[in-house]
Structure formats: structure tokens, C-alpha cells
Amino acid sequence: MHGQRSRFLTVMITVGLAFFYIPMILLVVYSFNYSKLVPVWGGWSTRWYKVLFQSEEVWSAVSLSLKIAIVNATFATFLGMLAALSMVRFGQFRGRTLFGGMLMAPLVMPEVITGLSLLVLFITLKQVFGWPENRGFATITIAHITFSMAYVAVTIQARLTGMGQSLEEAASDLGAKPFKVLTAITIPRLMPALVSGWLLAFTLSLDDLVIASFVTGPGASTLPILIFSRIRLGLRPDINALATIIILVVAVCIAIAALILFRQQQRDLLDQQLAKREE
Amino acid sequence: MSNQIKKVISMNVKTLTLLPGYLGRKIQKNWRVIIITIPFVWLLLFFLFPFFIVAKISVAELKIASPPFSKMFEWTGNGILSVRIVFDNFIYIITDDLYFNTYINSVKIAAISTFFCLLFGYPIAYGIVRSGPLAKPIFLFLIILPFWTSFLLRVYAWMGLLSDQGTINNILIALGIIEEPIQMLYTEFAVYIGIIYTYMPFMILPLYANMEKLDGSLNEAAADLGSRPINTFFKVTLPLTMPGVIAGSLLVFIPATGEYVIPDLLGGGNVQMIGRVLYNEFSRNTDWPVASAVALAMLFLLVLPIIVFQYYQGKSVEEK
Predict the structure, then answer these.
(1) So what's the ipTM on this one?
(2) All residues at 6 or more sequence positions from A173 whose CB lies less than 8 Å from its CB, including other chains
(3) Is A116 close to B295, i.e. CB distance below 8 A?
(4) What's the domain range around B15?
(5) A165 in contact with chain B, both atoms CB, cutoff 8 A
(6) At what angle do helices B188-211 and B135-148 cross, to 10 degrees?
(7) pTM: predicted TM-score of the whole model, two decimal places
(8) Are B53 and B199 found together in one domain?
(9) Fewer C-beta neighbours within 10 Å, C or N terminus of chain A?
(10) Model confidence over B251-284: pLDDT tens digits?
(11) Per-residue pLDDT tens for B144-158?
């Protein structure tokens, strides 16, 4: 539905975008403030970035968060892909309703409930099997995979439904076995969705505070846990500096993901036009 | 004797060499089952099963032990299995004023925030749908971008704006509107701002997806028949976008009710919400049975109705 946008709607979009972006811009600007009191301007300086880079605590939190995010994204993409294939391509199977429900539930589940239930699971597992010995990297990663695979599955499901089945049908008409069709046609065509799903899971993991706080143990602080423990006591200029760096990194990741999806869309459009011309 | 052994060994070696091919054929035959089973088992173990443990703890008693609750099954001396289930925790959270009021307060805050997200999000989504083919993806990207930058930092940004020496107070004082800073941080107002700010994209995106499919000719037909734009909006556009309104409202309302970070950082100790109480109950008081009962109550009162609703919604769409 295209058409004229009334002045009222234009004003609403402008105000809305200003509302979204002004707080973030101020956050970045104040990271270059010399003053120790965040809201009091004391001249431009990069002093808080130096403070930040010298902090060993920050570096170890960053490295833990990145390790978790990478492992999480890889497993979540794999599991999410299998789940999406099951839901979209396999028709009815026993337990499909339960499976679909469990797959979608993490999207609406309040984080405190997910976090609490996973913590009691890990404690019970430790009592019964003696594993996990210490909570930290492994438990946070498992918790993250469980909720981020739902987001990945949604992304891949949308792509699977969008790309249709004509190429798959053509391949099996030419004698390819179903498993061959899957590995030679379906998965390669899913590549853009897999990449954006991976990036999605990666950022979700980097962003999570509540679930990680529940399932972590003493000594294992992810970056959000570290930030949260510091800003609970008030504003801190070094956190503004850290925020600026994080915003920059995330923006770059999202821009890459958007570009990949955009190019795929263009290619699909071209394919459709070519197909039409041949008809 | 040795011949026989040789025979057995050679047979086994033969079987071993056949194994990869056999496994390959097995995978070829059962690959669908394998693909379904892996994520299915993962979700059963790490998503569904934990809720049964939470349910089990919610009917236990608080005990000074590690973990701090009584056992459900215990072998008594005579080889009799005793099963211990108490519903005290549920009675406690229903009769206790703190929990009841906190729950009502969370629902109230989430509902009012959802209303404001809808009030502002609706025209923004409608404006994006009405934009030209060039502006549309740019606007969409700009709406999605803050949604992916750290949630925690977006809340932190508002701490800087709302604090006593923060940007908003500074501007108001500089303009001469107020003389003393107004306390905005650590109030319910700050919590509303925080929720509306962080959850707005969840409202705009489903609304946009729904409006994108609207048929513009319906509006033209209404105008041709003499309907004024306001009238057309309430009689045609709004009813048709109801699915988007419902989806967006649910995506805001449910997580906002259980919100922990926003009431903690922007509300300080002054705003009680159920997510925060649950977290504190678990980490500080270590009253696990009560915390588990709160979690289950939340699950049944909040999440289950939504899942049932979605299920029937999905069914009616499939039937059409």
C-alpha cells in the first residue's frame, strides 16, 4: 500500500526516530567527556577509553562474552536450521504441535522464568550426575543456545517459506534422492538466512543479562553482568566509553547482515524476472 | 580351534568394513527422524524439563540445606517411600500483600506502557507503510537498529538523561522553566519511559508487517462513497489492522510484565515489579520454593493464555 504520507505521519516518524536516537547519541558524546561526573561537561577527552583498556576485569569479561557468543551462535544456527526444516518441509509428524510450541515459547517467555528454570535444571543435574561442576561458560552457553535457536528458527522458517520448493521439485524429478536434495539444493540456498541467523544469535548472546546472571557461578562475569554491577550504583564515564565501542561493533554487524539480506532479495527479484521472461 | 577364531575375526573385520556403508544407508533412510530428533530432544531437556523441576520445588518446603528445599521423595527407615507435597507457597503468595500488590503493579505498568507503545507506534508504522519505496527500507532499518544495540545500554542512556544533574533537568533549568531539578530517575515515570523506549520496536514491526498487506483500494472506495478520512480510519483501517495490534501488544505486554532490568536501574528500590521480586527472592533470600511458586504463577497467569490464544488463532487462519 503506497501513497501519500500525511504531514501528521511525517511528524510522528521524525519524533519517533529522534526519541530512539537522541539518548544513544548523548551516550556516545558523553563518553568523550573529561569530567568524572558524567552529566557535567568538562571538555573533550579520550581519558575514559584509556581507563577502560587498562582494566583487566573488562578484558576478561569481553573474552568470556565473545567465546560464549561464538559457540552459541554456531550451535543455535545448526539447531535452528534443523528445527526450521522440520517445521516447514516435513509435513505432519508426531509431536509437531508440542515441538512448534516449545520452539516459539522462548520468544515470549519472561527472561526471569527461563533463567530460574535453567538454574534449577543445572543444580539438579549436578546432584544427580555431578555435572556441571562449576557454573560458567558451559551453563551460560547452553542457556543461550536454548533461547537463541528460537530466533534463528524464525528467520530460517521465513526464508524457507519465501523461497518456494520449485528447485527442490526439479531436482527430485531429475532423480536426486531427498537427502541429496537437502544437502545440494536446500541448505546452500539457505546460506544468507544462516548467516543472518548466526549474527542474530551472536548479538542476542552478547546482549543477555538476566539469563546469564541466573546460570552463572562465582567468578564468571560476562560483559553485561559486569556493566550491570557497575551502573547499578550510578553513572560512570568508563561505561559510556564501553557503550560507545559496543554500539559501534553491533552497528557494523547489523549493517553487514542487512546488506547480505538485501543482496539476496535483489537476486531473488532478478531470478523471478528472468523466469517470467522465459515463460 | 584357531581356524574358528580366525573365521570369527575375519567376519568381524568384514562387518567393520561394511559399517560405514551401513551407517550411511541408515542415515539415508532415517535422516528426517534424525533432523527432527536433535532439536526436539534439546528443547525437551533444556526447555520443558526444567519447568517440571520448578514445579517440584514449588511444592517443597524451605529448608536450611543445599539446595535449600525439602525433598519430595524420601525413603523412610522401614523402606517406605514418603511423598511430600505442600501448597503453602501458593497460599502464601496469594494471601501475602507484597506479592499480590507487586503482581497487580507489574500488570498495571506493563498495560499502560503497552497502550503508549501502541499510541505512538501505530502512526509510526502507518507512516512507514505509506512511505516511498526508497525511504521505506531506510526507516525500517532505523527502527530495527536500536533494537539490536544492547538493551542494557539503552536503559543506561536514560539514566544519564533522567538523573538529577542529567540532560533533561539541565535543559529545563537553563530555559528557566524550573529552578530546582525534578526527581525523575528512580520513579515510576522513569520505568514507563524505559519500557516504552526499549519495547517500541516490538510494537512497530508486527504492525508494519500487518499494514503492509492492506489493500489501499478499500480506502479509495470508502472515500469515493463519501467517507471522511477519520471515519475511514476507524471503520476500515483500524479493524483490518487488529491482528497486528494484538500481536504487537502481546510482544510488549508479556516481557514487560516480567521485566527485571528496567525497574531495577530506572526505578531503584521505589518501583516493585514481579520480575525484580522473583530475582531478589532467588538470589538474596534464597527462598527457592516461594520463588518457584511465583514463577509458576506467572507462567500460568501470563504465558499460558497467550499460547492457547495463539494456537487457536493459528488454527482459524489455517482453516480459512
Answers:
(1) 0.86
(2) none
(3) yes
(4) 2-58
(5) no
(6) 140
(7) 0.83
(8) no
(9) C
(10) 899 889 889 999 999 998 788 898 888 888 887 7
(11) 887 777 888 999 999
